[in-house]
Write a structure and sequence with these properties.
heterodimer; A: 359 residues; alpha+beta; Rossmann fold; OB fold (Dihydrolipoamide Acetyltransferase, E2P); 2 domains; 6-stranded mixed sheet; 8 helices; 23% helix; B: mainly alpha; MetI-like fold; 13 helices; globular
């Protein structure tokens, strides 16, 4: 009783390999977050499940039924796109009722469900408006109400909050959690580019990169034990700084000659070339000593300041609490605390993370 | 200065365009004396209006010729050809817009060109083939025969216009309809067609105008049973018919199109055609 993908691959002439041998079992009653960069194949995977993107090889089955034999309109898949799609000639109420009526609900029943679902997204005052008479956020909420009221067995949400304002996002995330959790027999797949969203929804995370699923696990698992530099970059926001180093003589040596003592967890690895990663909020700006660099970009977001630093060893992003008056071009000293370092092989595979159960 | 020039130009041009029509209308109400004794223009002042022209073309004791039957024929033929062209033309256009067909190197673009190419040939070339075809099918001088022949000319216009129109409608709407339980045919009728009213209106307008004004096929493929309005008016021209009767018959034959123009104009002003004509 689940949605199973077996060796699903899609290649197109225009874009090359879109989905690369994806096998996964989506279990009902759970929420899966697809996270990845914009071209990682999240949307393609959803379109393949919905039937909008024909697959070249492999198979998709739902509860044992091969989807290959089921046309799009019989798959019962609800989709919310990033760019909202509503029927322009129908009113808000008619828009939400449409899929319910297609599903075979009676008129009164469909109206009841539709009204409840419109109420949930806060559009009860706009029942008779056409989509073109609504703001972008309201249109997206109509699209949400339409898809969520269907109670489909497969729900696909492709960055549904992308076009909404901050407050509404917060509110809808909470709503989503409730709605998703109330549908015990539905597979929910939710794509996003924003790591915090994945963490808030408390679902299981699938990290996608270049058409492949590169890691699967709970949010903490993926966050604390990214299996590769790729995952580490995608899952950290701002992205993790990754620098080439070598381990030798009890020291971590950076490529510019700067070195610091090797942390306890990394002592067992043999000497050689590695990469270390560190999250932006773990980097500390130092009064003196440490690695020196020049500030190349400063971003203030909310109550935090992101500082991009060019060091001879590579680019490092550091996040400082509060708003700091730092200027581009200034030099800065930074410290990379040894107990917060991730160690990766040069091919990107994780050796040890700060949160590994070490000795 | 510019405004004055503009107003002058528009006035002169309007007079230039409207004068023949005005003359036809006034002539249709003139008695014999107002026509034969030199040009007269203004009713009630220069001549006393009379209905003898109109009485001659409409049924009644003074009827010279009956234009009502040809009008009915024209209506049937135009409506039939327009309906068939719109229904099948828009279905074909939807298919060509949303799906890919093809054989070897030939694809949708070639199919569309094939449709449009039907209009490139002058109708004269087709007269004999059509005549023989209808003769074999025993459809000469029938409504159906003329409808089918006109459809062959009108459908390409519909396909051509509607492919462009459907291409402009977002594909995501059909996709969404299919995800929500419509097969492609239902998706078309339930979501795309209601959105296509502007495009269908424009295509339909073209069909009605070309269908109503067709004279060539009506003349060559029908004889007495299915006499259409333009043919009947021309027939009047060929005999010794007084000018006021001729004028009345021409005015009579353009009334339906003028009426249509008013309907479309109201449609346009309500904004329903916005973006339909690019």
């Amino acid at each position: 009783m689940s949605l199973i993908l077996k060796n699903v691959s899609v290649t197109t002439e225009k874009d090359g390999v879109i989905l690369d041998d994806i096998s996964f079992e989506f279990k009902p009653g759970r929420i899966y977050i697809l996270i990845g960069r914009t071209t990682s194949g999240k949307t393609s995977l959803m379109r393949a499940i919905a039937g909008l993107l024909p697959i070249d090889s492999g198979e998709i089955t739902m509860n044992g039924v091969d989807f290959d034999e089921k046309p799009i309109w019989e798959r019962d898949v609800a989709v919310v796109y990033q760019q909202f799609i509503n029927y322009p000639n129908k009113t808000v109420l008619q828009n939400v009722e449409f899929p319910l009526l297609r599903k075979g609900l009676k008129k009164t029943e469909a109206r009841e469900v539709a009204l409840a679902s419109i109420n949930k997204v806060g559009l009860s005052d706009y029942l008779d408006r056409k989509p073109s008479q609504l703001s972008g956020g309201q249109q997206q909420r109509v699209a949400l109400a339409r898809s969520l009221s269907r109670k489909s067995h497969i729900m696909l949400l492709d960055e549904p909050l992308m076009n909404l304002d901050y407050k509404l996002r917060e509110q809808l995330r909470v709503e989503f959690k409730e709605i998703f959790n109330s549908q015990k027999d539905a597979v929910t797949i939710y794509a996003t580019t924003e790591p915090p969203e994945a963490l808030i929804l408390g679902a299981e995370i699938l990290v996608m990169h270049e058409g492949r699923i590169v890691q699967f696990g709970s949010p903490t698992e993926v966050y604390e034990q990214p299996q590769s530099t790729t995952v580490a970059r995608v899952i950290s926001d701002p992205p993790m700084s990754i620098l080439p180093v070598s381990l030798a003589a009890g020291e971590i040596r950076f490529s510019d000659g700067y070195s610091q003592p090797i942390p306890a967890k990394m002592k067992n690895f043999k000497e050689g070339r590695y990469e270390v990663g560190i999250r932006a909020n773990d980097i500390v700006s130092a009064k003196s000593g440490g690695e020196k660099g020049v500030i190349s970009l400063v971003e203030v977001s909310g109550s935090e300041t992101l500082v991009y630093v060019d060091t001879p060893a590579g680019e490092v992003v550091l996040q400082m609490e509060g708003i700091h008056d730092v200027k581009v071009g200034e030099s800065i000293s930074i410290e990379l605390p040894g107990n917060r370092l991730f160690l990766f092989e040069t091919n990107g595979a994780l050796c040890v993370s700060p949160d590994s159960a070490g000795e | 200065m510019y405004k004055v020039l503009k107003a002058t130009f528009i006035t002169i041009w309007s007079l230039f365009v409207l004068f023949p029509i005005m003359w036809a209308i006034t002539t249709s109400f003139k008695p014999e004396s107002a026509v034969v004794n030199g040009a007269t223009f203004i009713p009630f002042l220069e001549f006393q209006p009379s209905l003898i022209g109109w009485k001659a073309i409409l049924p009644g004791p003074d009827s010279l010729t009956n234009l009502l039957t040809p009008t009915l024929n024209s209506l049937i033929v135009t409506a039939g050809a327009t309906a068939i062209s719109l229904i099948f033309g828009s279905l074909a256009a939807y298919g060509l817009s949303r799906f890919t067909y093809g054989w070897k190197n030939y694809s949708n673009a070639d199919i569309i060109f094939f449709f449009v190419s039907q209009r490139i040939m002058p109708p004269v070339v087709l007269a004999i083939p059509f005549f023989l075809l209808l003769k074999e099918l025993r459809l000469l001088d029938t409504h159906l025969g003329l409808i089918l022949v006109l459809t062959s000319g009108l459908m390409p216009i519909v396909v051509w216009l509607m492919v462009d129109f459907f291409n402009a409608l977002p594909r995501e709407i059909d996709e969404m309809a299919m995800l929500e339980g419509c097969n492609p045919i239902q998706a078309f009728f339930r979501t795309i067609l209601p959105l296509s009213k502007p495009g269908l209106t424009v295509a339909g307008m073209f069909c009605v105008i070309f269908g109503w004004n067709d004279i060539f096929f009506a003349l060559t493929l029908t004889a007495t049973k299915v006499l259409t309005l333009p043919v009947a008016v021309i027939a009047l021209n060929g005999t010794v018919t007084p000018y006021w009767i001729l004028a009345a018959s021409t005015v009579f034959s353009i009334i339906p199109l003028v009426g249509l123009a008013f309907v479309i104009e109201r449609f346009l002003s309500r904004g329903n055609l916005g973006g339909a004509v690019r």
